[in-house]
Amino acid sequence: MLGKIHHAAIIVSNYEKSKEFYTKVLELEIINEIYRAERQSYKLDLAIGNAQIELFSFPEPPERPDKPEARGLRHLCFEVSDIESTVNWLMDKGVEVEPIRVDPITDKRFTFFRDPDELPLELYEK
What we know:
Layout: E1 7-12, H1 15-25, E2 29-36, E3 41-48, E4 51-57, E5 76-80, H2 83-92, E6 101-102, E7 109-114, E8 120-125
Parallel strand pairs: 1-4, 5-8
Antiparallel strand pairs: 2-3, 3-4, 6-7, 7-8
């Protein structure tokens, strides 16, 4: 019944800072951007492969729980073909990236970095 994940939605604390990160640093393509005055909210649709990331801004959003094991979305993961070149590309843009590790179950390499709101983002090598 279910086909694929269509999008992931992220509520950000600083819309301009997050827009810059996702479009300039991660180089995701803007599909659509609107301001919804009745909600005092921006909505930015970004292309990522065959899916989308939606960035939302709302007045006074609550803080994210600080533990990665808290209920809710744990992290977003991006598949990459060459993890070392992707890590170097991010670091050249000033993004702090954790050391590359190996998944003991799949033997695939992975690592994490964070967006401007400290949302964990993972890179996972094909």
